[in-house]
UniProtKB/TrEMBL annotation:
Belongs to the YciI family. It comes from the Bacteria. Residues 1-111 form the YCII-related domain. This is Uncharacterized conserved protein. It holds the Pfam family YCII. InterPro entries: Dimeric_a/b-barrel, YCII. PANTHER family: BLL7163 PROTEIN, BLL7171 PROTEIN-RELATED. Signal peptide: none annotated. It comes from Blastococcus mobilis.
Length: 141
């Protein structure tokens, strides 16, 4: 099972305040533990929303670009991990070890092809697997 672990933004991350050496070392040690356990697929921090944009699509498919920054920091994302574990309980245990204080971390399961049932036809499944293989080949994963 794959899970996205979402680190919420706060006023500091939205102001672009960089982590201290101590915070980077603690995060590095935690990431190393995830890697050694074989559960980490990806993990990154994100720049503040002042450097981002949103694209809003209308009912007719037309799009509008909205430049950041965005309000309501409690709803914004500052970073993430993608972890592959055997259960929801296991990902919760990993997240409890994260070196955060006074923060909130959100955990969301990532869909797999099997979750879509009969709508994921053998043809669609084959195309999905082909695209994943292409992405892995392009990025050396």
């Amino acid at each position: 099972m794959r899970f996205m672990v979402i680190v919420k933004a706060n006023e500091d991350t939205e102001r672009g305040v960089m982590p201290t050496e101590q915070q980077l070392a603690a995060m590095g040690a935690y990431n190393e533990e995830l890697v050694k356990a074989g559960v980490m697929l990806a993990g990154e921090g994100l720049h503040p929303t002042s450097k981002g944009a949103r694209v809003r699509f209308d009912k007719d498919g037309a799009s509008t670009v909205i430049d950041g920054p965005f309000a309501e920091t409690k709803e914004l994302v500052a970073g993430f991990w993608i972890l592959e574990v055997s259960s929801r309980e296991e990902v919760i245990e990993w997240v409890r070890k994260a070196p955060f204080r006074n923060e909130e971390i959100e955990i969301r399961q990532v869909f797999s092809s099997d979750d879509f049932g009969d709508a994921m036809t053998p043809e669609l499944r084959a195309k999905e697997e082909e695209m994943r293989a292409t992405v892995e080949a392009q990025h050396g994963a």
